[in-house]
Amino acid sequence: MSTEKLVVERIGHRGEGVARLGERLVFVPYALAGESVAAEVRGDHARMIEILEPSKDRIAPICGHYGVCGGCAVQALAPGPYEQWKRGLVVAALRNAGVSAEIAPLIDAHGAGRRRVAFHGRSAAGRARVGFMQARSHEIVEIDACPLLEPGLAPALPAARALAKALAGKGKPLDIAATLTLDGLDIDLRGPGALSEDEAKAVIAVAERCDLARLSNHGRVVALRRKPRVAVDEAVVALPPGSFLQATTAGEEEIARHVLAAVGDAKRVADLFCGLGAFALRLSARARVCAYDNDAEAIAALTEAARAAAGSRLAMAEARDLFRKPLDAKELSQFDAVVFDPPRAGAAAQAEQLAKSSVDKIVAVSCDAHSFARDAGILIAGGYALGEVTPIDQFRFSPHVELVATFSRTTRPIRKRSLLSR
Q1: Is 274 considered catalytic here?
Q2: Could you give the CA distance from residue 190 to residue 174 in angstroms, rounded to a whole number?
Q3: Which of 146, 210, 290, 367 is catalytic?
């Protein structure tokens, strides 16, 4: 390890400053483009010691933990340059993959803050520490609050501390995932393994004391005091333990607004990787929708919510592993439009079937620009034209960015008779 003076050239795709030391690149957390910094360098990573010449774009961070906590990467970057950097992540990913597209300005969808959070807990000598990880480290930064969370999530941190303390005797790393629901906090523990009778009693007591709606361990319910529900537009959906939700309410609403606008007046729509139905439930108010996801509990919750929703035209919701068994071109031929929102790894197998299909319009939602670029390349090679790509920011100060994009057939093949129209 050596102490060096570094000149930061740019902010990289992880939100770290990128500098050169001889022939190699060095990555410096919390450093901004144009800054000169003194840093301890180890290999291709560095720890900033002092800012020698600050960037004109540097502003005061909103959190006192910034610079130690690894939860935020670029809190000290002014809004304009921040938006340019984050939009640039999508631009660079598509350009590097050889995909040409018009990239819209970044949309801020932070809203009231994040409605879900995962705290990390570590125990040593019977003492539990709870917080977030340091940048590029497994060391815990104990925090007193996080300004990025919805106010309703404030009780999650003391509850996480109490749960970590109750399980400190296990000496195992904990992830404590908390979600804000209409019925209070829903917490899922990950990492402790099976609980003994005494440990179960201890965490149930925490659930009572902290007024948790539900407490689960690896998705298995330990204490259920109120059944957690979330609102999806006009519908209300029961939330299975550990189910996926967009990080912010504003983020879900903004993404859904773009999806609905892109689907337009299509009458027969497939929602692939539908989850709890953030798109399917909204679309079913105006179109016949078939929804698919490998999470059987999410599919059951979506089905129940659709039954209770006035005017819903959800035709079916099926538990199906779209990675191993994607809808094939023949199955897809019954739809006017397809929406797909896969996990971070993307959906190459499903994209290949879509590329062979006669679907007129495909609306892609992605949380990873690189996997999206790969899947987009497959669709383009199959005869689809990529329209405007809209980046959406619900993970403020982080390198994560959502996007919505529309693909349309460059020619319109003769459509087979729809199964839904019979």
Answers
A1: no
A2: 6
A3: 367
